[in-house]
Amino acid sequence: MKTPLFEFPSYRYLVSDWEFKKKGILNRINKQKYVRTKLQTFLTDRQTNNKSYVHYLAELLIPELTEFCQEAGVTCQMTDAWCVKYQKGDYQTTHNHRGWGFSGVLYVTYDHEVHTPTKFVAPWNDPRNDCTTLAYPPGITEGVLFIAPSWALHFVEPNESRKERVVIVFDLLPKLPDHQSINIDDK
Ligand SMILES: [Fe+2]
Question: Is the pLDDT of residue 187 over 70?
Fold first, then answer.
């Protein structure tokens, strides 16, 4: 029988009271300055927002992040959050965020009929054919929060629509067990 040894730990939540919260989020992120540097094939406030809405976002997502922490068995802190806007033709190349912890993407302005979710690269080749496996998270609509390991390679395919695709991305750093903590209290 099939006996998986490992799993790809990913999580999906529909944000509660989304229409109300969406207004607050848009109000917040639309005040930011967006830039498109030479290397960036999208608009972002990552370099300019100064982490100004990390606490706001963490509070807004308390119900979903609480559920995630329970399911994943971790205590996490949101360490950074930024917005990415994909206009027609914009995309993001394959990357990951760091070697551990989790990263989340909140689909803020998203039409599932014309936009595509973030696409993930399986961390191992398919042993039957040595191929790289790619997957979209299922059930992505506006107001959905998807969380995956920060080490997971992922990318965004070109937005073929004139409708802007807007996401907020954030990193969650788990609290280490005391014996692994770098903040050793000598007292
Ligand atoms: Fe990313």
Answer: no
